[in-house]
Specification:
elongated; two-stranded antiparallel sheet
Length: 404
């Protein structure tokens, strides 16, 4: 099968991004990058359309279904990159780049880019490659490299490489992908996973060397290049996704530590409020105040961190409820004490209250005051006495005025 895919260069044509996160991007750098990225987007869209058409034309239904999620994710990647490109163009504003815009351009290029799976044609959500089940968070250059890797893999799986494509160009593309894999391996944490990935990298390098040597001797290496391109592209794709998950996990771990510190401080304060409430009123609420420290240290495993964040959310809700409940109980005591003072002032300032009525009110008022001064305050008695005292005050002072 031979199709014009729009991009005749080998995979790995991601535009070189200027600077790094936090380093302002000059107008000249931004112009070059936007020009290259715009051309890359146009060519990649043509290539994805050709890939999509080839997949739909595949005679084997099972092959079409197997390719669906990678094609869908590739479309989602293109859309996310295109949206970020439009934001870059707006910020660039035809070259009117001051210090603020230079910082914004750097952030838009190197900051987080969320890629939501979905091709816009149906409601279903495609699975991200290699176990990344939710939105993928990568920088713009990483998203472009991931798109290159996935497109290269799809082209090879669909046998869409142009027949006239020089072997040296394809080998060069594989070599560039291998070097990017090497860079990804160097950023992995030490451990068994890195050791295994290093061994896989060595095996890929050996296969590339063998293919190169065969080509130098004039042998036909077309049958070796396709499978190698598929494996290299898939490996690069998986490592980019894994790096994204590690970065996301690191951010989640930092967020979990911040939440634990904040929830621990809140919990200590609410337990103090709880102690005040238990000593101040009866019956007092009896809600447990969770201690977030009981959840232990922040784990290293990403799934365990997700589970911890969910538990921290529940702890936060429990603390909210405890805070509201104990504060409400203390607030009722304070409200009753304040209302007693207001009623006293109303009686004292009302000439309509007779001496006999004041004599009736005094024992009621004294009993209510004694109950409110008790430790703890019996709220049930206090409510009943307040209702009686307030009712009598209304009766003797409601001389054409609105009741209190």
């Amino acid at each position: 099968m031979s199709l014009d895919l729009g991009m005749t260069n080998a995979p790995g044509s991601t535009p070189r991004a200027p600077g790094r996160l936090g380093v302002p991007v000059s107008a000249a750098e931004a112009l070059r990058y936007l020009t290259d990225l715009g051309m890359w987007l146009d060519e990649r869209r043509k290539q994805l359309d050709a890939i999509d058409q080839a997949a739909l034309s595949a005679p084997d239904q099972s092959d079409r279904e197997a390719l669906t999620h990678d094609i869908t994710v590739s479309m989602a990647l293109w859309k996310a990159i295109s949206d970020r490109y439009e934001l870059l163009r707006v910020t660039f504003d035809s070259g009117r780049v001051g210090p603020v815009q230079a910082e914004q351009l750097s952030t838009l290029i190197w900051g987080r880019l969320d890629v939501a799976p979905g091709d816009g044609r149906e409601a279903t959500r495609a699975r991200m490659p290699s176990g990344a089940e939710s939105n993928l968070a990568v920088s713009l250059p990483e998203a472009c490299r991931l798109s290159d890797a996935m497109s290269s893999s799809l082209r090879a799986r669909l046998a869409l490489e142009t027949t006239g494509l020089d072997v040296s160009i394809r080998v060069k593309g594989i070599r560039e992908s291998v070097e990017r894999i090497r860079d990804q391996v160097s950023m992995m944490p030490l451990g068994a996973t890195r050791d295994r990935t290093q061994r896989e990298l060595i095996a890929l390098e050996q296969r590339l060397f063998d293919v190169t040597e065969r080509a130098k001797r004039g042998a036909d290496v077309g049958g070796f290049l396709g499978p190698l391109e598929v494996e290299v592209a898939a490996r690069e794709r998986d490592l980019i996704v894994a790096a994204s998950r590690r970065h996301e996990s690191e951010r989640d771990a930092a967020r979990a530590r911040e939440l634990i510190t904040a929830l621990a401080a809140r919990g200590d304060a609410i337990r103090g409020l709880q102690a005040q409430c238990l000593a101040a009123v009866t019956p007092a609420p009896k809600l447990a105040v969770p201690d977030v420290r009981a959840l232990g240290a922040v784990p290293d495993d990403p799934d365990a961190i997700d589970a911890l964040l969910a538990r921290l959310g529940l702890v936060g809700k429990a603390l909210d409820q405890a805070h509201e409940t104990y504060a409400r109980a203390l607030g009722e005591r304070d409200e009753l004490q304040g209302l007693l003072g207001a009623l006293d002032a109303q009686v004292a300032g009302s000439p309509a209250v007779t001496a006999a009525e004041r004599a009736d009110l005094k024992p009621m008022r004294d009993q209510l005051a004694a109950v409110l001064a008790a430790t703890p305050v019996p709220l049930v008695r206090a409510r009943a006495l307040m209702a009686a005292y307030q009712s009598y005050v209304r009766t003797v002072t409601n001389n054409g005025r609105a009741p209190l």
